[in-house]
Amino acid sequence: MIPQDTYPSIVPFLTCGWPSPEGFLASVRGLAKVGCPYFEVGFPFSDPIADGPTIQLTSSEALEAGMNLKMCFELTAQATRESGIPAVAMTYANLVYHLGLNEFCQRLKEAGGEGLIVPDLSFEESEPVKEACNRHDLHLVSFLAPTTAAERRREVAAAAQGFLYLVAVRGVTGGAGASGPELQQLITDAKAAAACPVLVGFGVRGPEQVMDILKAGADGAIVGSALLEKVRAAGTDGASIEKAVEEFLGPLVQACGATPA
Amino acid sequence: MQALKQWPDARGRFGEFGGRFVPETLHAALTQLEEQYRAVAQDEEFQAELRSELKDFSGRPTPLTRATRLEKAWGGPRIWLKREDLNHTGSHKLNNCLGQVLLARRLGKKRIIAETGAGQHGVATATVCARYGLPCVVYMGAEDVRRQALNVYRMRLLGAEVRPVESGAKTLKDATNEAMRDWVATVDSTHYIIGSVVGPHPFPMMVRDFQSVIGEEVKEQLGRLPDRVIACVGGGSNAAGIFYPFVEDESVKLVGVEAGGLSSEIGEHCRSLSAGSPGILHGARTYLLQTEGQVSATHSLSAGLDYPGVGPEHSFWKDSGRVIYESVGDKDAIKAFQEVARCEGIIAALESSHAYAWASQNAGKFPDEKDWVICSSGRGDKDVAEVERLTEEVNS
Asked: Is the pTM higher than 0.90?
């Protein structure tokens, strides 16, 4: 199950096996070193409709380099074992259903996974996946968006487990920065109804934003596209990637007031 | 068992297919769209406005033409052609666009987006946007932009912005991904006119209903039930539109023809129904061409059929046995394209040519059948240059 007592914190997102299996493992070393309590690992899918250009590209590059589901589980297992922190998998409904709900959840758990995020699994379609997750001691994460109506916010938040994922902006991952009264209202509504931590993602790029998000009452932030851009800029060398991840995430973690391990 | 015409259920499911697999951001818009659609389906004023536009702007009803020279060449049943190519803009696509643009106005949306493969849906969308004064953005795979230059120019003439999509194989699937991403970001102001019976609920139901005018007219024009109705299937909108009014008429055999492309090897065809397996793409559970859960590359010379998924109701009709899904390859489609032009004076779209090709190969096999209806879903002017290029390749 996803840790519940490590907040406020930063949850980084990485595309599994990108820019290479070794580069991915180096990124996980870097984020563990600065004190992230767990990480999101994206299992690349050919048609990621909730993702912006950065994650579309990392996903398609990973697939072109030969990543498949089996390798995703293996690499995730290695990353969680080496780093000593758990993972939450993020992938699209087709991959989860393709393997079969039970088998997917079992293999994720065996790989050190504690939760699952499926951005194209609507609340209405989530019940079978949630049951399979819970059978294997995994949380299934739910989403709230700025467009989610008030009554639905209460309903989804009340049923949330692991953490509640707030989509900061209308749009796909990596879009315009998250802030403003609309986000404030979303955080307030989520906190009022959710029994689990509330994290903000989509468009989180810097420490000021993280502080704004925490000030607004959230328990932390998810950082994906901005982190992957730093990894890309660091090139292919594992040590450079690890350092780039530390240097980028360090100030964000500090903004949370957490102490690096 | 629920009657075939009663689907989808309240969750947007056709049996185990369909549903609503979308990011949370789109939930509110889809719910609102469904509510409004159910309201206008019962609203006589809306239906009268739509009928009037279909008649006076699009030129409906389209004729049902008897093809006596094809009958002679094929030796079999009487052949009737449902002439969707004679709709304004040259295909059945306008039926859906007129319905959806009227709905978008009721929803107060100020901007329209669409995806397009062959460009026929893009042209139809650009056309209704021009008529109703709405800004229009059409996403089109870069490969299709190349293959369908004439339609790109038509859309631009009509005032639409055509955005080439460079991701993936640069065809319809990738254009649909990009249109969905646009919609996620702009959902408050924008309506997404999906061009086929695909996507999250309520799109497959709504597009089918708007296209059902095709089959309803056939029923009336023929005055009796045909033995068989044949239509091409990419996403499946012209097929759904001509099949749906007949699904409860058990004596009528329904044949959907998929693009067999170059071969039966994965990546070289678009046979989602006859060679795929159930999966989830673009918001719905449906038959899908996939490898280890990744959506496969596809090929057809016909851009409008070049799609790895299919409307979820077709998946349901396949599994229930109500519709038979067959396929025809690139070469046979070209042959039919040429044959129909010479025999009947109709240059049909390459998409429709797949339906003609199946009929051509099979008409002689059913001596007891009297009337066949082929959905001639669009005109082929857009394909002339590509066919010329391909046949020159063969000849050189």
From this structure: yes
Q: Are B205 and B13 in contact (CB under 8 A)?
A: no
Above pLDDT 90, what percent of chain B? 92
User: Residues of B at the A interface (Cβ-Cβ below 8 Å)?
Assistant: 11, 19-29, 167-168, 173, 177, 180-181, 184-188, 279-283, 285, 288, 290, 292-295
> B25 lies in a domain?
yes
Number of domains in chain B: 2
Q: How far is CA B23 from the centre of its chain?
A: 25
End-to-end CA distance of chain B: 56
HSE of B25, CA atoms in CB hemisphere, 13 A: 24
Same domain, B158 and B264: no
pLDDT digits (tens, 9 = 90+) for B285-318: 999 999 999 999 999 999 899 999 999 999 999 9
Test mutation, B9, B16, B22, B25, chain A, max A CBs within 10 A: B25
Q: Which among B206, B237, B268 is the end of a domain?
A: B206
What is the ipTM score, two decimals?
0.95
What is residue B348's DSSP assignment?
B
**Sequence-ordered alpha helix ranges (H) in A42-84:** 53-64, 69-83
CA distances (Å), origin B374, targets B5, B38, B218, B345: 21, 31, 10, 16
Contacts of B167 in chain A (CB under 8 A): 56, 60
Same domain, B83 and B125: no
Q: Are residues B385 and B308 in the same domain?
A: yes
Domain range for B144 is 21-47+93-206
d(CA A80, CA A76): 6
